[in-house]
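note to self — DONT lose this again. spent like an hour looking for the file last time. sequence + predicted structure for the chain T wanted, 154 res
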Amino acid sequence: MSAATSDGSGPVLFAYDGSELAGHAITEAGRQLRAGRDAVVLTVWEPFNVGFLPVGGAGFDAAGVDEVKAAAEKTASQGAALAEAAGFRAEIMTAEAAPTWKGIIDAADSRDATLIVLGSHGRSGVTGLVVGSVASAVAAHSQRSVLIVHHRHG
């Protein structure tokens, strides 16, 4: 199923990991893009490396796939609420993928996204992976346009 709109343009895909920076990227995209666009909010986890910040600090066993998927869905839902507040018509998507950047690109391809939006230069996940490395890899490997939103200082 494609989320393409009637004018042939696909949705914006937000890579959302529950971090403040990922939320800032959604808000910033809302400022820069026309209101009312379709959006897919994606939360990706790597096997045994969750890669997102569970909403409400919920703890879980990363080996328990059902538990991780439920936590990813809750995190993506939080991102979808932010996207709707920023003027998008949002739905959620979750994926287990390694590496994370490939999961983001694969999801964008499967949904025919016209733009991938993600944050850079923040820390994310239980292992403290640098989000910037994911953003760099997405930009380097994707054939789609990528909007990388940087953390504002000051």
